[in-house]
Amino acid sequence: MSAFQVSLHAQPLLTKDEVVFYNLLRLTVQDQYLVFAQVPVWCLVDVQAKTPHARAAFFNTIALRRVDFVLVHPGTLATEKIIELDDPAVPAAQKEDRNKLIDGIFTEAGIALVRLQNPGTYTCPTLATALGLGD
């Protein structure tokens, strides 16, 4: 886009490890949920504020935040569960601040959030258990 003096190239939405996890997640939930990846936080919550300034400040805080995976009920289209994968590459202090913000947002919105360590070690049954999914 020459007007901005930048060049643009396609890039993958997910890493190879995230694709492996996504496929496992799809097998695990089958038709029970729709699975979405890399969803912006602002798409998942309805933000109400007493002033436009407060609303804008909140949106500025979450503007570039995304969650790894979202499970959505196929009939009601309600967001049922957020899945976050542990990223060992993120520094602990940065991860703690981000997790605190994300946890607070989804707790207040009443949306369950599950954090998974070592996502490459799951099988369908162990992932179903970790997500609290019934048989």
Overview in brief:
This protein has 135 residues and is of the alpha+beta class.
Helix count from the secondary structure assignment: 4
Return the structural class.
Answer: alpha+beta
The structural domain count equals 1
Percent strand equals 15-25%
- Taking all Cα atoms into account, the compactness measure Rg is 17 Å
Looking at the structure, what is the overall shape? globular
Amino- and carboxy-terminal Cα gap: 50 Å
Major sheet attributes: 4 strands, mixed
Secondary-structure element sequence?
Answer: HEHEEHEH
Ranges where pLDDT stays below 50 over 5 or more residues in a row are none
The whole-number mean of residue pLDDT values reads 92
What's the total count of β strands?
4
Residue share in helices?
25-40%
Give the strand line-up of the largest sheet. Answer: 1-2-3-4
Give a structural overview.
The chain has 135 residues and is an alpha+beta fold. The chain has one domain. The chain contains four helices and four strands, in the order αβαββαβα. The protein has a four-stranded mixed sheet with strand order 1-2-3-4, sandwiched between helices. It is globular, with a radius of gyration of 17 Å. The mean pLDDT is 92.
Please specify the SSE layout and strand pairing.
Blueprint (H helix, E strand, L loop, with lengths): L15 H14 L4 E7 L11 H11 L3 E7 L6 E7 L6 H18 L2 E5 L7 H7 L5
Parallel strand pairs: 3-4
Antiparallel strand pairs: 1-2, 2-3
Helix pairs in contact: 1-4
